[in-house]
Every structure is written in structure tokens, then in C-alpha cells.
């Protein structure tokens, strides 16, 4: 073979070899991305149950028409195929895949279970800014229409936990939910809806944790769905650099004052609600509206409504009460979760906010934004019975969480910093706390 021809063949072989190597790298990278999309190579990642239109339709049809046995078989098949799993990996790329149901049972281990949980049963079509504020809420069948209204009013990210009882009404309720979702474009655009089907009613704190866990922005508002957002919260907050800096630091929770009409019939139609503070103040001066649940002053009294009426400046909550349960906006990462042992009415939200406060997060009140309660009937018999149980649980829980955070601050060297100020001021009200704390941390 002539030297020129040999040289050309050699070059061609080299080019083919290089091309093969490049294509191999591209193929391998594509395979890894497709296989482990959504995972982190530092600490593992959750692969949520996202759906395209066909998969979503199939899932919903299955829930509404298949028998329990068929659903169980289908879930087992999905798990065997590696679907609905959590992939954990290390820096070297070693991957361990665990069933999502197993991980969820650990995440919500203090709640009653097992629960059939489907994160992102409906996933919002909108792409959200990470620094937006997600309305984190929980919904039952009698509040479906109120959730739809919230989506159209807020027109921003919403993470909603929807609970459906696992009984003979299940298929009917899920069908009703599907119809509501398909009828409102705002729900399709803005609402991430996480479905829980089980037999355990009123696990409010567990449901709150689900909504918080799957919220897709850095900040959330813990909101009861039956409250109407009367003002543009996002404009007030995101347009104020000082407030945004506070949220980014993670040491501030913003309180949005809550109101209720004295004549409950006036709270039936949200379209008549005031949208500006001066309009609200006219109603306050006419004694037509006031603090939410004013008969239970401890619930919202720490907001200091007298001061709110007179100021246009952000101000700090200085007279905290352990029964305080405001509606707050705060940073998702680094904040405590709600205690799931509280089941039913009474103390569940107060306990959640108590731990947030003890963790070193200060409450600051927004001066010009407000919420108004939309009137509805309360199941008073259930509330009275459940409050008795939760009142006893809360007494023990307060002592427990005080000691836990005292030990935490002592061990981390934060006991003599401002981080521990909330705990010191609140927990020293508990008889014997100082003595017990000193014997525990020394």
C-alpha cells in the first residue's frame, strides 16, 4: 500500500474512533439524565409523581373505577418497575433506589397511617420564581370551591393538600375534584394538588407538612383556605427590599392580620370585602368587623390590633402567647415542621407556630395587608371533644419542645445569642423549667 493511502486510512480510522467516543459519551450522559432526573449527587432526591395528560387521565380513571385489589396490584407492579421511587446517590454516582411509600412512611412517621399519598396529583402548569410566595393550605371536600376561588384570586403558586376519606364516597369525591380542576384554568395554572386517601380525618398538621414539603418556592404562607386574601401580599413583600432580606435570612415570619365580620352573614360574599386598609378601617370604626375569633383573645391578640390600626410600619410581636396562631409567611428551608401527634381540633396550629417561635424565628406584622374569614359552619361537637385531648397534649408538648431546643442551643453554642431569646422568654414561664434545663444540659 502506498504511503499516502496508508496515511489517509490511518486518519480516517482515528476520526471514526473519536466520533465513536463522543457518541458514547453523549449516549451515556443522556441515559443517566433520563434515569436519574431530579436526583442530587450529594444527598438524594425525590422523583415526584408528575404526569402527562394521558398518564393523569389513566391514574384518575384507575382511582374512580378500579377495585381496591386492582389498585393494589397496579401499585405493586409500578414499584417493581421502579416507578414512584426515591433515588439516593453519593459523590461517586452509586445509586440506591427505595420505594416512595417507604420514604413517606418515615417522613410522616408520627401521623396515623398508612395513607395513600400522591404528591402532585395535579401539577400546576406555571413555572414559579423561587422567591415567590406559595399559599400552603389544606382542603377537604366541603372546601373545593373555596380552593378554586383562591386560585383565581391569588393567581400565584398554591400547594394544597386534599384529603379524601377512603370509604364508599371516595370515587364520587375524586370525580368531583377532577371536574372542578378541569373547569377552572386558574387551578390548572397555579395549583399543585397533593392527594391523600385514607381513613384518618382531621390530621391537620400532617396535611400542613405535606403542602409545605412539596411547595416549589422558597417562601410559603401557612393559610387556612377559607380566608380571603384582600390585598396584594406579593406586591407588598417582594417590592420591599428590607422585608425580602428578612425573609432570606430565615429569622423572620411575617404576620398577616386576620379579621372576621361581627355579623357572620356579612362574611358570606367575598366580593363585598374591603381591599384597602382605609376601607377596612371604616368598617372597624362602625363596629362591623374586628379581630378574628375575638372571643378567644389569645388566638390572635399578640398581633396587637390597636397598634396595627395606627401604624404604616412593620412592627415586631412583643407579647407572645403560646395560644397565638397567626397566619404567617416564612422561609420554607430551615423552619420547623408541624407536630403531627396533634389530631383533630384544638392546639394543632398553635403548637406548630409555638415551635417556629421557639426555634428563633421572630414574628413581624405587615402594616397594610389583611385577611378576612369567609363564614362557614363549624362542627362544634367534634371541636369540643378534640380540644380536651389536645389541650392535655399541648401542656406536655410545650415542656418537651422547650427542653429540646434548650439542649440544641446549648450544644450548638447559640444559648447566649439572640437565637435563644424567644425560648428564654417563653419557656421560663413553665414552672421548674430552669432547674430541669440546667440538670439536662450540664
From TrEMBL:
Naming one, the record's GO cellular component terms include:
membrane
Where is region (Disordered) located?
54-83
List, alphabetically, the Pfam families matched: Glyco_transf_49
Q: Which GO terms describe its molecular function?
A: glucuronosyltransferase activity; xylosyltransferase activity
The residue ranges crossing the membrane are 12-33
Q: Which InterPro entries match?
A: Nucleotide-diphossugar_trans, Xyl/GlcA_transferase
Q: Which UniProt keywords apply?
A: Glycoprotein, Membrane, Signal-anchor, Transmembrane, Transmembrane helix
Location relative to the cell? Membrane
UniProt lists compositionally biased (Low complexity) regions at 70-80
> How is this protein positioned relative to the membrane?
Single-pass type II membrane protein
A Gene Ontology biological process in which this protein takes part is: protein O-linked glycosylation via mannose
State the protein's name: Glycosyltransferase family 49 protein
- Which organism's genome codes for this protein? Lichtheimia ornata
Amino acid at each position: 500500500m502506498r504511503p499516502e493511502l496508508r496515511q489517509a486510512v490511518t486518519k480516517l480510522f482515528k476520526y471514526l474512533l473519536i466520533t465513536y467516543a463522543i457518541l458514547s459519551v453523549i449516549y451515556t450522559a443522556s441515559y443517566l439524565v433520563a434515569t436519574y432526573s431530579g436526583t442530587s449527587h450529594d444527598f438524594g432526591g425525590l422523583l415526584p409523581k408528575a404526569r402527562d395528560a394521558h398518564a393523569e387521565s389513566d391514574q384518575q380513571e384507575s382511582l374512580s373505577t378500579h377495585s381496591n385489589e386492582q389498585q393494589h396490584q397496579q401499585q405493586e407492579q409500578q414499584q417493581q418497575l421502579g416507578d414512584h421511587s426515591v433515588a439516593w446517590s453519593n459523590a461517586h454516582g452509586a445509586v440506591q433506589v427505595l420505594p416512595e411509600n417507604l420514604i413517606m412512611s418515615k417522613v410522616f412517621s408520627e401521623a396515623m397511617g398508612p395513607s395513600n399519598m400522591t404528591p402532585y396529583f395535579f401539577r400546576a402548569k406555571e413555572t414559579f420564581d423561587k422567591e415567590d410566595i406559595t399559599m400552603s393550605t389544606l382542603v377537604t371536600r366541603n372546601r373545593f370551591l373555596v380552593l378554586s376561588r383562591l386560585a383565581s384570586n391569588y393567581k400565584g403558586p398554591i400547594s394544597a393538600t386534599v384529603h379524601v376519606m377512603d370509604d364508599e364516597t371516595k370515587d364520587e369525591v375524586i370525580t368531583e375534584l377532577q371536574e372542578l380542576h378541569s373547569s377552572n384554568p386558574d387551578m390548572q395554572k397555579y395549583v399543585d394538588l397533593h392527594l391523600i386517601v385514607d381513613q384518618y380525618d382531621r390530621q391537620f398538621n400532617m396535611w400542613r407538612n405535606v403542602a409545605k414539603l412539596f411547595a416549589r418556592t422558597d417562601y410559603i404562607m401557612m393559610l387556612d383556605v377559607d380566608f380571603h386574601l384582600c390585598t396584594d401580599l406579593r406586591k407588598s413583600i417582594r417590592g420591599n427590599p428590607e422585608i425580602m432580606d428578612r425573609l432570606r435570612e430565615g429569622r423572620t415570619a411575617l404576620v398577616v392580620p386576620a379579621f372576621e365580620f361581627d355579623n357572620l352573614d356579612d362574611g358570606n360574599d367575598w366580593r363585598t370585602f374591603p381591599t384597602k386598609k382605609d376601607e377596612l378601617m371604616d368598617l372597624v370604626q362602625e363596629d362591623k368587623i374586628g379581630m378574628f375569633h375575638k372571643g378567644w383573645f389569645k388566638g390572635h391578640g399578640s398581633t396587637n390590633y390597636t397598634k396595627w390600626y395606627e401604624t404604616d410600619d412593620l412592627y415586631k410581636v412583643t407579647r407572645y402567647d403560646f395560644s397565638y396562631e397567626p397566619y404567617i409567611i416564612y422561609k420554607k428551608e430551615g423552619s420547623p415542621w408541624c407536630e403531627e401527634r396533634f389530631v383533630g381540633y384544638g392546639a394543632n396550629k398553635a403548637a406548630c407556630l409555638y415551635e417556629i417561635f421557639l426555634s428563633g424565628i421572630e414574628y413581624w406584622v405587615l402594616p397594610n395587608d389583611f385577611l378576612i374569614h369567609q363564614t362557614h359552619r363549624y362542627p362544634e361537637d367534634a371541636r369540643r371533644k378534640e380540644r380536651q385531648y389536645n389541650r392535655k397534649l399541648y401542656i406536655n408538648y410545650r415542656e418537651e419542645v422547650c427542653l429540646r431546643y434548650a439542649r440544641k442551643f446549648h450544644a450548638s453554642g447559640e444559648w447566649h445569642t439572640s437565637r435563644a431569646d424567644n425560648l428564654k422568654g417563653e419557656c421560663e414561664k413553665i414552672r421548674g423549667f430552669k432547674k430541669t434545663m440546667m440538670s439536662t444540659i450540664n
